[in-house]
Amino acid sequence: MAVNREAKAMEFGDILQVIGEFGWFQKRLVLLICIPNFLTAFQLFGQVFSAKAVPHHCNTSWVRKLGLNLTEEQEMNLTIPRKPDGSFHKCQMFSPVQGHLQPLQLNATESCRDGWVYPEKLQPTLVTEFDLVCERAHLTDISQSVFMGGVLAGALVLGPLSDRIGSRNMILLTLLMMGFFGTGAGMAPRFSFYMAMRFFVGSAFAGISISMAALISEWVGATHRPFVIIITHCCNSVGQMTLAGLAYGIQEWRLYQIVGSFPWLCLFFYIWVLPSSARWLLTRGKVEEAKSEIQRAAAINKRNVPEELLDQLSMQKRGASGTTLDVFTNRHLRKVTIIMAWLWFVVSLVYYGMSLQIEDFGLDIYMTQFVFGAIEIPARFCGILLLQRIGRKKCQAGWFLLGGIVCMIIPAVMQTSPLAVTVLAVINKAAFGAAFSTIYLFSVEVFPTVVRQTCLAVCSVVARIGGIIAPLANILDKIHPAISVVLFGVTALAGGLLCFFLPETQNRDLQDDTTESPSQVSIAENYKSATIFPHQEAPARDFRRKDDTAVSPSQKSVAEDHESSLGRENRSVSFVLQEPPAREFHHEDRDLQDDPTVSPSQQSIAENDKNSTNFPQESPSRDFHHKIQQDSQDVFENRPVEEKD
User: Could you tell me if 489 and 404 are in contact, meaning their C-beta atoms sit under 8 angstroms apart?
Assistant: First the structure.
């Protein structure tokens, strides 16, 4: 049998196996990503402590002008009305009187007109400095929503921009933004200026979180990817634990804000040590720069990359798509994006909603914050085992369903047991902490390389809408304290059910294009399982169409009949493909997708094709050979087939 095959270009997935999928280069990269993840905990949850509730009451210094020489307690008894439970009202005062004081005249009440009084020994906080109490108390929740609004804006702008300038450059830019605007917030003369600084910090957070996830996933092999994602997210949990100690040790809010933000500026050395994504460089046609990064990684991993392999590197063609609009032009990708967007919305809504309500649980907020951070570490590591055993889809669904059920239980014990509420909240925090790590991994594996960061940005946009709603949900609790928790539970349960409509990506290499339909996966998988033959010399079969378009249902049935015939006859045939074969994939791993025109499940075609059996040179039956040839030509769209007598 004559075989006409052209030299195949080496793809990045093959190069990654040569240089090492998790060597010292990748470990150093993980360390570099862990540091910013540790620092982001302050920007996310730091305001919980700088804007915590403090005792206060109306300023009634007017009574001192009457020369009555009263103690502070006597002044409050005389000028501040009491609530039904006997405590002093925080936002009401008796109307001032002129001239001599007559107690019978102190019946009319009004809002505080001269400000508020706070405990003298209390260090300045956002609340005390900007009077965020009474009718201004809602500004603390609004400021958190402004921060999440910045994250939304960052996802819209910095996510697509990261696709153009690369993950490395975006990380360097957002490191500077986090340090500059975070430190500027600590010097804010007005609360409006503080919120503006927080808006830009939120924008930077969106850019850096998307870029870090993309960069580290593109350098690490699929089998190590879950572990790496979990490790980087655990650093955020450690940051949450450290945050409790920092907030307890530094009570003055300006110093607290500066200490939590300035370390970002100390990461300027990343300019020299942070690598670029070689895969992204290839999609941009920067082959020489990609080779340089590959050689650098190989040297650190103490591996040798043959020059002939580097010479085979070719620029991976970028499709006509690559923008946010292209996410909705492919049917499969559109379905996945919509479901993933809802999951991101829910995980952000519940995770931040529960995290920002630690004051409402009735226990010490510093200890609660420490426990919230600590419980995420075993939960995330438990997620590693579950991801490897039951897959991404079932694991993601399990975390959502667990968190949703817990949220629905909390209202039943909310009024009777603060400890039970805290325990349930901790379980919920653990579930959604693990869900956050899982969804980052899951999202990276289902989106193609050239639009991966754009797709993550789309999901992040929807997630930040959830983040914006999360602090505002506290306002609903004024109507009934269980409204926000029930809202969290219902959305979480819905998300858990939607997970089952997503494709499973466990142990598959990340994708490169989306031209083929998901149904094509079964063609190669069934073909592989149905044919087991002795082999001589024969090329691997190629199930790709020439134009990379989807295989029709009729083609699938032809292939299945083909497999059945092979199984019954136990015959062997040989094919000659004159078209260059499709890029080979490893069955255990799924390579990163570089073109938005291939669906996630299509990887299996090339993956299984690589492991399919070879065929002998001789064909025992000419009639049978003719039948197989006709069926195969249907599958391969009438590609030329040569036979050897």
Answer: yes
